[in-house]
């Protein structure tokens, strides 16, 4: 058994980290062995020395090749320290595909200037101080300019003038960048945002402010800005520009090669195009930047692609003479482990018997077979084995197979209860306001998101060689948290999620922070392994530039969503628990999943899984999360849940609570998507649970809801055959045919049941609005003329008088119009207008038999009431007798008004759902940007029906063609196959309201849908075939009429 002191030391060693990231490059180097860098370190220093000696041109670039884990990022970290110790500037260019090379470079320079590294202040403050010194700027002025104080226009002008006197050519040609950089160092955020907007080429909506500060109203090209910054840097010192993460973008391109719109595969072209773009970009760096050495760190295969596939002479501008590889000797391996173990022993207060304990010195004979990273991984594996076996086992051979250890043990019931209680207490005590405040969000949001993501990594099994969590660098960072997953060590393929909250309200501040996030993450359509997630609580600014940058961000694959107060409290509680370092915490996290259950993480990781192409690694994706403190339970269909289908990735059944349909459903899908099958499935599932439905059938493909299948479909789920029998036996399917007397006609009275809403002023007013909207077109009073305005006013006053007098039928109202009483004739010439409208309405009744005509009077109670012995009724309203769109709209308006009045009198009460109303081709009845006769009644239902228990289903092929208030009221949404680029883009924009990025709509097959609902993260579903017969062809009119007759 391990004694307490040794256990404490081994537990500390489990915190060993062997995979430095780009963020680590800016942190102090904890340990360094010159032998690790080999010749590469000396080559980097020689190249930087050439840049330091130069007065202008840049030296040849340097390529440092190395396999994964060979120490490329460690080399860059060491190089950053050496550069800054020698009065140089260091910049780190991350992921970039070359297509936006210069804009990305500008953002890289600005990010680097904000960092300090080994300097006590930011590199921007150092640069401004050195520029002041170079121009002999007086001390008082220097203190105002060099950063950290609020800058005014007068000292800014004096600084620019002084520099132009010292450096006439550079000062003249770079005066705008010089002015903007000085403004960027101001302590006033508005000034820095204005400067950043000009430097990054944001739109010129702030032209007046720019001119007020002496900046040009127009933008300059990104290339011009980058070159100006480089020339100013060169006046005060050399620079090193490190290029990292090229391997990652090549790997992502290889597995993200299907165009989202066209669906065309381009696997043989994309990496070559990337190589060409990157090659030309690297050439430009060498040619156009001054006193700057470019160091490219990458895999040998990545450099070979750039070297061989670029038309530009890249090999002539870069030295390819250094390569990092395995450890050079046993002594270096032992020294590396001893150096990395030492701080952990010190933290544990442990004096080891030898520096590499528990790895014996003879174990390192095999060190030359390992890279630095793989050696540290092997050491960590052995420490885990010791802890798992509760025994210190000296390791004598690194090549000894690693035993498979047990999974993290779950906590005991007592521990689980204690953790759950502590967790809930911390959530209740958490203060989160500072995370939502612009002044403190950079610090607090980084802390909270970082804690949540670290907990998520542990919940996923915490393989430290797979998941990485970083937090923002502080002081207006490009991101607040960064979660990455290593998918393939050999190719350095990774998935990245970047989180950035923006609570600022000023448009310029919002735009600048969004641009920083986008520049860092580089979201790209078709590459699902890089996700930029913007967390935004306030409304987005309405200006044209703000709307444009938002649209560009979403179209590029960015995700915009909110983070709830509940989630932030969860992350705050996890932050405390993680800092307490209880050894049993990982066991509780892996069973309770508090981070993974948070709404934000379910949203993001459910919609941003990595590509699942053959041979690729599996992304983290969504996993079902049990409730905190409870054991996982199997979810099955019940009387209160519908079965939607199965999760595409794992085949799990996906239930939807009946009560969720109260908050309405929207289906966005095109022809051939399986939209009709999904609609029928929803109706059938409701009928099986005693819920009746009224469904509009504009295309003759729903009248078969009462037909049985000749043969069971292959895609049915287990139990569907029995459900089909129960559905057909227990459901009363009735087909109605308004205006077709040879079927089952309906007649509509255009006036609702006013008596049901007289006691509710708001709803009575809505009923009057809908009635006027229905009668005005029939009375020819729907124009924009003064006469029509007066006519509608007379209609409204007359309707109110009629309703309060207990009137109901249309002929009675027409008689009242013909003989308008004094109480309703306050307007001038009201009787003349009323008499004219009465005659016009009588003519409408003659011309349109549906308008107050023959047939079963429309009664929602009749449409929803099953005949004795049946569980539910499905009323299919065929529109074959209403060929004109205006006729259909008028009918739907009257139906909705009647339905609204009926559901008020017959609410669902304590039942989860009282009824369902389904509208296919919804864009025809409540379109966006156009008011129709049924718009008002549709919106009234969408906003009010839920409280009475009526669920609405809206289906459309045009995501932006339907009124936005309908979409906004739909808590459950489905996205199926679309092949129009316009509609795909519209669907993506609609999905963003749910914080989801629908990136593969054009690749969905029939029956596949992305779905999201309350309590269900955004995921892809496979939906089974409906229970009633649904062949490929729709019914003919005669077949519809035959079914209507019964």
From TrEMBL:
Q: Which SMART domains match?
A: AAA (SM00382)
Q: Which residues form the AAA+ ATPase domain?
A: 58-328, 661-978
Q: Which InterPro entries match?
A: AAA+_ATPase (IPR003593), HerA_central (IPR002789), P-loop_NTPase (IPR027417), T4SS_component (IPR051162)
Q: What is this protein called?
A: Uncharacterized protein DUF87
Organism annotation: Actinoplanes lutulentus
């Amino acid at each position: 058994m391990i004694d307490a002191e040794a256990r404490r030391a081994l537990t500390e060693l489990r915190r060993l980290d062997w995979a430095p990231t780009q963020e680590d490059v800016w942190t102090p180097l904890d340990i360094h062995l010159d032998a690790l860098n080999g010749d590469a370190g000396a080559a980097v220093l020689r190249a930087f020395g050439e840049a330091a000696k130069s007065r202008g041109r840049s030296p040849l670039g340097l390529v440092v090749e190395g396999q994964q884990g060979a120490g490329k990022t460690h080399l860059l970290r060491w190089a950053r320290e050496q550069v800054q110790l020698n009065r140089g500037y260091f910049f780190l260019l991350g992921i970039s595909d070359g297509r936006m090379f210069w804009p990305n470079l500008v953002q890289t320079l600005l990010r680097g200037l904000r960092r300090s590294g080994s300097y006590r202040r930011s590199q921007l403050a150092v640069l401004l101080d050195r520029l002041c010194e170079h121009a002999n700027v007086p001390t008082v002025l220097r203190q105002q300019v060099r950063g950290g104080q609020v800058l005014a226009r007068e000292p800014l002008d004096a600084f620019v003038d002084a520099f132009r006197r010292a450096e006439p050519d550079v000062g003249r040609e770079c005066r705008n960048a010089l002015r903007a950089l000085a403004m960027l160092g101001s302590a006033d955020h508005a000034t820095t945002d204005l400067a950043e907007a000009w430097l990054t080429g944001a739109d010129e909506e702030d032209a007046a402010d720019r001119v007020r500060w002496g900046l040009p109203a127009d933008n300059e090209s990104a290339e011009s800005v980058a070159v100006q910054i480089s020339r100013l840097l060169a006046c005060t010192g050399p620079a090193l520009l490190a290029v990292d993460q090229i391997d990652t973008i090549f790997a992502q391109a290889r597995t993200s090669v299907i165009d989202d719109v066209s669906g065309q595969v381009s696997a043989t072209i994309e990496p070559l195009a990337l190589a060409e773009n990157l090659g030309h970009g690297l050439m430009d760096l060498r040619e156009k930047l001054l006193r700057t050495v470019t160091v490219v760190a990458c895999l040998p295969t990545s450099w070979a692609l750039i070297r061989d596939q670029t038309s530009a002479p890249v090999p002539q501008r870069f030295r390819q003479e250094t390569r990092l590889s395995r450890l050079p000797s046993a002594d270096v391996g032992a020294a590396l482990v001893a150096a990395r173990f030492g701080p952990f022993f010190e933290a544990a207060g442990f004096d080891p018997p030898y520096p590499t304990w528990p790895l014996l010195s003879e174990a390192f004979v095999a060190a030359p077979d390992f890279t630095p990273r793989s050696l540290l991984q092997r050491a960590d594996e052995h420490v885990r084995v010791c802890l798992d076996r509760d025994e210190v086992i000296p390791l004598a051979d690194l090549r000894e197979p690693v035993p498979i250890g047990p999974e993290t043990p779950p906590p005991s019931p007592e521990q689980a209860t204690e953790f759950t209680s502590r967790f809930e207490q911390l959530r209740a005590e958490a203060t989160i306001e500072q995370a939502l405040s612009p002044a403190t969000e950079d610090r607090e949001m980084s802390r909270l998101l970082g804690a949540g993501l670290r907990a998520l990594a542990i919940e996923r099994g915490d393989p430290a060689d797979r998941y990485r969590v970083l937090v923002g660098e502080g002081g207006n960072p490009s991101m607040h948290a960064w979660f990455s997953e290593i998918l393939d060590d050999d190719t350095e393929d990774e998935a990245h999620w970047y989180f950035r909250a923006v609570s600022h309200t000023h448009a310029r501040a919002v735009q600048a922070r969004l641009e920083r996030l986008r520049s860092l993450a580089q979201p790209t359509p078709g590459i699902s392994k890089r996700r930029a997630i913007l967390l935004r609580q306030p409304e987005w600014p309405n200006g044209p530039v703000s709307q444009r940058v938002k649209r560009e961000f979403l179209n590029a694959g960015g995700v915009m969503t909110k983070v709830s107060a509940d989630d932030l409290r969860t992350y705050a509680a996890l932050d405390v628990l993680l800092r307490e370092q209880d050894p049993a915490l990982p066991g509780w996290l892996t069973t309770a999943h508090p981070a993974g259950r948070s709404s934000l993480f379910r949203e993001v990781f459910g919609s941003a899984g990595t590509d699942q192409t053959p041979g690729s690694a599996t992304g983290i994706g969504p996993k079902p999360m049990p409730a905190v403190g409870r054991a996982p339970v199997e979810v099955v269909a019940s009387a209160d849940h519908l079965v939607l289908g199965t999760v595409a990735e794992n085949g799990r059944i996906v239930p939807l609570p009946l009560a969720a349909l109260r908050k309405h459903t929207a289906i966005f899908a095109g022809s051939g998507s399986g939209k009709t099958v999904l609609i029928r499935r929803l109706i059938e599932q409701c009928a099986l649970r005693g819920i009746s439905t009224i469904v509009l059938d504009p295309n003759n493909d729903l009248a078969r809801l009462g037909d049985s299948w000749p043969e069971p479909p292959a895609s049915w789920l287990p139990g569907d055959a029995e459900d089909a029998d129960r559905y057909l036996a227990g459901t009363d399917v009735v087909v109605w045919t308004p205006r077709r007397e040879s079927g089952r006609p309906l007649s509509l009275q255009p006036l609702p049941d006013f008596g049901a809403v007289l006691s509710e002023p708001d709803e009575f007013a809505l009923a009057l609005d809908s009635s006027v909207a229905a009668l005005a077109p029939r009375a020819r009073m729907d124009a924009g003329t003064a006469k029509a305005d007066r006519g509608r006013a007379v209609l409204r006053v007359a309707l109110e008088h009629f309703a309060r007098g207990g009137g109901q039928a249309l002929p009675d109202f027409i008689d009242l119009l013909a003989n308008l009483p004094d109480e309703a004739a306050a307007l001038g010439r009201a009787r003349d207008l009323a008499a004219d409208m009465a005659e016009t309405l009588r003519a409408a009744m003659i011309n349109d038999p549906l308008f107050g005509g023959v047939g079963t009077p429309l009664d929602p109670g009749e449409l929803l009431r099953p005949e004795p012995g049946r569980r539910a009724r499905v009323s299919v309203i065929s529109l074959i007798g209403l060929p004109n769109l205006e006729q259909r709209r008028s009918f739907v308006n009257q139906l909705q008004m009647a339905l609204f009045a009926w559901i008020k009198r017959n609410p669902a009460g304590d039942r989860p759902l009282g009824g369902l109303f389904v509208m296919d081709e919804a864009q025809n009845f409540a379109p966006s940007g156009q008011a129709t006769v049924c718009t008002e009644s549709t919106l009234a239902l969408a906003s009010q029906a839920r409280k009475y228990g009526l669920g609405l289903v809206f289906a459309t092929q045009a995501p932006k063609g339907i009124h936005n208030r309908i979409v906004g009221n739909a808590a459950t949404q489905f996205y199926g196959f679309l092949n129009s680029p316009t509609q795909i883009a519209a669907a993506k924009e609609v999905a963003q309201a749910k914080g989801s990025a629908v990136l593969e709509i054009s690749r969905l097959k029939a029956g596949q849908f992305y779905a999201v609902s309350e309590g269900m993260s955004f995921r892809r579903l496979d939906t089974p075939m409906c229970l009633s017969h649904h062949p490929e062809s729709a019914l003919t009119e005669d077949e519809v009429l035959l079914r209507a007759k019964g």
